[in-house]
Amino acid sequence: MNFYKIYAPLLLIGIVSSALASELFWGEANWNESNWQSSGNSDYLDTDNDRQFNIFDIDDDGDEVLDSEDAFPLDVTESVDTDGDGIGNNADNDDDDDGILDVADMYPLDPTRSGDMTFTVQNDTNGDGNADILWRNADDGRNWLWTMNGRSIVRSAGINVIADQAWQIVGRGDFDGDGKSDILWRNSNTGRNYIYLMDGFSIKQQGQLNYVVDSNWRVKQVADFDGDGKDDIFWRHGVRGDTWMYLMDGMSVKVSQANLRVADLNWEIVASGDVNGDDKADVVWRHKTSGDNYIWLMNGTTIANRYVLNRVASSDWTIAGAGDLNGDGTDDIIWRNQNDGRNWAYFMNGGQIQSSSLINTVSNLNWQIADISDLDGDGDVDLFWRQGQTAQSYIYLMDGFSIGSSGYSTTVNPNWKVQN
Ligand SMILES: [Ca+2]
Ligand SMILES: [Ca+2]
Ligand SMILES: [Ca+2]
Ligand SMILES: [Ca+2]
């Protein structure tokens, strides 16, 4: 920008208008600001004390935003009011009036989006922006955490021991919205549901959620279905096919509501993720025999839209999960072929398949994707693999359809299971 090009003409206009003002109305000798100020007409004030009355000054408050473009032409501290509430953006702590404070709003000037910044990385237990790997030992009941930084394990340590194997970890999610992923437990004998609010390796708070005694009710997905930055719980009844939503607020259920019954149990819930980019997780279904894939676009407890995505007839193809592979803010769908070992991805956009491509082929079917989350915090989810026989671990740091960097991680005893 050329300072003189922009300001020299303004300066000139200012000088000429000041001169005119002096000559035509009162003359320099009669300048008496207080007389005009007391008239209450801001045209004859000189707000920025640049010796030009406001009526001749094209920038009354001297904030270098022209009056014609300044929502507050007489206030040097403000010039923009995005939500038109009369409070300038500098003083306003919610510029777009979407109910998400600017400090937590990834899109502070867009009322249609918030993308709560504390909820960008799933499975991040210590809030450092990198997802972590949670383990439970199916033999001795130890619960264990690897805090990750890409392919490196920053710290490997135990959380606690819950020896009773009726207690199962049925979901990971951030229930209180503090940016740290928490743990949902369900007791398969008693039906008791229990929550750990986590802070790294420490349980900062724990307690009973409720009892759901009928063990046919299963937690299928934990994700933020209403976009409030707190993960919610989606249930399905394993016999009747009913679905049920809990919208969560910390240790308590904010809204508990039955959703549609999908009586045909060949329809399976295979993933959740935000496939249309509205910051609300959606539900991905796959029909075991027809191969139809089906989407529920969720808005809290309401299904905003539902439709067949496509058909992938071969039942060799299984959906490993969903996650944002290319960092565009929309979750993508990741497949594994359980016959030939091909790994495949759909890039999603607006709830539809934008592009579809092979990632690679891992022929040995003992290797399965155990976790899909952003281990290096670059905005693209990564793949954590586990070998069912040898118990080896392997990590792909993903970059779109490509594997950016990959390698073996630490091998642990097969009694250790990765928890999701
Ligand atoms: Ca949390
Ligand atoms: Ca929520
Ligand atoms: Ca969505
Ligand atoms: Ca990543």
Automatic annotation (TrEMBL):
Presence of the UniProt keyword Protein biosynthesis in the record: no
SUPFAM superfamilies xrefs: Integrin alpha N-terminal domain
Matches recorded under InterPro entries: FG-GAP, Integrin_alpha_N, TSP_type-3_rpt
Pfam families, sorted: FG-GAP_3
Signal peptide: 1-21
Region (Disordered): 77-100
Superkingdom, natural source: Bacteria
Keyword Signal: yes
Keywords assigned by UniProt, alphabetized: Signal
Protein name: Repeat domain-containing protein
Native source organism of the sequence: Aliiglaciecola litoralis
